[in-house]
Amino acid sequence: MDRAPNPAFYVLLICLVLMAVGPIWLMLATSLKLNVDIIQGTSALFFVPTLQNYETVLCDWLWYEPEHVRRCDRTFGRALVNSLIISSVSTAITLILGCMAAYALVRFRFMGRGVTSLTTLMVRMVPPAVLLVPVFGIWTFQYGLDGTRGGLILVYVAMNLPFVIWILQSFIVQVPVQLEEAARIDGAGPFRTFFLVVLPLIKPGLAAAAIFTFRIAWNEFLLANALSDRSTRTVPVVIVNSITEYSIDWGAIMATGMLLAVPPILFTLVASRQIITGMTAGAVKG
Amino acid sequence: MPQIVFDGVRKSFGPTEVLPPLDLTLEDGEFTVLVGPSGCGKSTTLRLLAGLETLSGGEIRFDDRRIDTLEPKERDIAMVFQDYALYPHMSVAKNMSFALRLARENKAEIERRVHAAATTLGIDHLLDRKPAALSGGQRQRVAMGRALVRDASVFLFDEPLSNLDAKLRARMRVELGEMRTRIDKNMVYVTHDQVEAMTLGDRIVVLKDGAIQQQGSAEELFENPVNRFVAGFIGSPTMNFLPATIQERDGALVAEGEGFALPLAGPRQAIESGAREVEIGIRPSSFTTDMGAGAPVELRVSVAEYLGAQSVLVTRCGPHEVLAEVASTRRFKPGETATFAVPPDAILLFDRETGRRLAVPQHPTGG
After folding, report:
1. Which of A233, B231, B331, B351 sees the fewest Cβ atoms within 10 Å?
2. CB-based contacts of B178: which residues, under 8 Å, 6+ apart?
3. Residue A151 lies in a domain
4. Is the Cβ pair A283, B87 closer than 8 Å?
């Protein structure tokens, strides 16, 4: 017997949906409005949608020159490229280092293994804001890494590595040791054993770690704001910087926000396809 | 196909010694079975040979070449693991060809060898499947095939049949036996199942606590066990052991215990002087209803297990439990007391303290 759910259930559901979708809808709607409509307030629901804001933001990459743009501001295009490079490179480095470190921590017996394993996690417990000042000082005065993409990549790798190591450890533990022994007998050295046998089996773990790392690097604001300069700013920093005392181009900001949301979504869609369970099924007798 | 020599091989894990110095020579082209109860060091021995564990002392040689310092891949060995250890992300064909691909064999040759091995094992229709889509028996075959495609000089088997059900195990045992005659290689096989050991091995090495108890052919081990452990381990159902005292009666030796008095006549019962308190060992199959064959023993049947042509009787002889395996032509009922004969020749004597077999088969020494 199906019991009709309590109406309050639907009310709650609608509230939750509004809370989740509302800001995104607001952002989308605003990004499609002219500044006149945005400021006016009365035309919140009725307006003529326009792509002008997107044209403003993407003016650099358009094949035509939008007539409303008097002077093309290249900031957003540059920031998008910076964000993409910094996020993907730091993700790649984090995964490469992370999977090897996790493998070593799981499989090799060495002195200080437990301590190493634990301290990696402790690094993760430190809030980025605490790191901000020392990192800024060291990056700027000691290594001169401020204002470079490399500097930001380095911080992101350091920040995400512990977590990635921990995720991957739990995946590597599940790979039966016998597989590696079989590979050794079959003539594989340690590296080929790792790359041909272990790595394919922890693909789901790599994907999960990649999604996580990419999103953190993509959205990170605090350190990026402190460490980047005009030419290396990432998108979140650019958005905030475009809010000035004299003008706030809400339309362009919202359009940038919409564009900012797209790459992580695409990345997650692609990466999450790799997350399948039961990778090691059939390897050894259950 | 080298002669494999273990020379004082030791292995300890931390303070625990799992393998006291082991000396063992496995002849060229032999099928050797290492058998023993779990924890006896047989798997460790195999893993040392494979190079998956490092030695704590001693050395292993193939002929005169020392190999214990070499990486597994340099030892020219193939191994079948107990729980298959198939690469789950590779198809059966890829699993079998993994070693060859690593060695950069040419493609046509790999294809040919994989197909040949797959045909031998009857898995050529499964080549495109992943291990997850195979049954236990099929996986076992793939694991076997992975070893077969390699032209290794030594094949190692680590309890390869222990995960299969009884019927499949019997079948694979026969197939292994057939394979053995076709492939003239050194094979080392580890098992805890004495049936596998007896049916497959040219040479059986019985291990206990890392020490070799006895080695030899199945017949040797069954007929002439050197101690109580081997006697009890080899043969099914297990040998009966009864405490007894050796007495001299009218110039003849008699083993007396609670509920029995068995004359010792054959040369196998000759004992060294001084050993009066002994344990006698009688195989269940030695009990016979043909009363002319030897001295009578009264056994009270408590359970009769009918197994077809043979029945195993769980009986009591005084305070001791005794197993007897007799032809099912005569059926016994629980509670019944029956008299069986034991041929004097079938009685083995063991030192009660050390478990050592007491036998000087040449000439009996009385008194």
Report:
1. B331
2. none
3. yes
4. yes
User: A165: how many CB neighbours lie within 10 A of its CB?
Assistant: 27
Residues of the domain holding A11:
7-61
Among the residues of chain B, which ranges form H helices? Answer: 42-50, 92-102, 107-121, 136-148, 166-182, 194-200, 218-223, 228-233
Whether residue B237 is preceded by a cis peptide bond, meaning omega within 30 degrees of 0, is: yes
Task: Tell me which amino acid residue B272 is.
Answer: E
* The pLDDT of residue A283: 73
Query: A282 and B131 in contact by Cβ < 8 A?
Result: yes
Q: What is the ipTM of this complex?
A: 0.81
Domains of chain B: 4-226 (3.40.50.300), 240-351 (2.40.50.140)
State chain A's mean pLDDT as an integer.
87
Alpha-carbon gap, residue B33 to B192, rounded angstroms: 10
Same domain? A256 vs A168: yes
> In terms of domains, do A88 and A219 share one?
yes
Average the pLDDT over A165-179 and give the result.
91
A83 with A201, same domain: the answer is yes
Partner residue facing A181 (CB), from B52, B130, B133: B52
Amino acid identity, position B194: Q
Instruction: Give domain status of residue A203, yes or no.
Output: yes
The answer to whether A185 contacts B50, with C-beta atoms less than 8 Å apart, is yes
Among A197, A221, A107, A202, smallest CA distance to A164 is for A202
Residues 6+ positions from B306 with CB-CB distance below 8 Å: B328, B331
Q: How far apart are CA A282 and CA A277, in angstroms?
A: 13
Residue B24, min C-alpha distance to chain A (Å): 22
Is A239 inside any structural domain? yes
Q: Tokens for B276, please give them.
A: 């009066």
Q: Give the gap in angstroms from C-alpha B26 to the nearest C-alpha of chain A.
A: 20
Mean pLDDT for each consecutive 10-residue tract of chain B (367 residues)? 88 88 89 91 92 91 90 90 91 94 92 92 92 90 90 90 86 85 87 90 91 92 92 91 84 82 67 70 90 87 91 91 90 89 87 79 38
| Cβ atoms within 10 Å, residue B105 | 18
What is this structure's pTM? 0.80
Residue owning tokens 């000691």: A142
- Confidence at residue B363, expressed as pLDDT on a 0 to 100 scale: 38
Q: CB neighbours of B248 closer than 8 A, spacing ≥ 6?
A: B254, B366, B367
pLDDT of residue B272: 54
Q: List the one residue out of B51, B89, B55 whose CA is nearest residue B73.
A: B51
Helix (H) or strand (E) holding B257: strand B252-257
Q: Specify the 3-state DSSP secondary structure of B3.
A: coil
Check A283 against B78: CB less than 8 A apart: no
Per-residue pLDDT of A51-99, as tens digits, reads 888 888 888 777 777 777 777 778 888 888 999 999 999 999 999 999 9
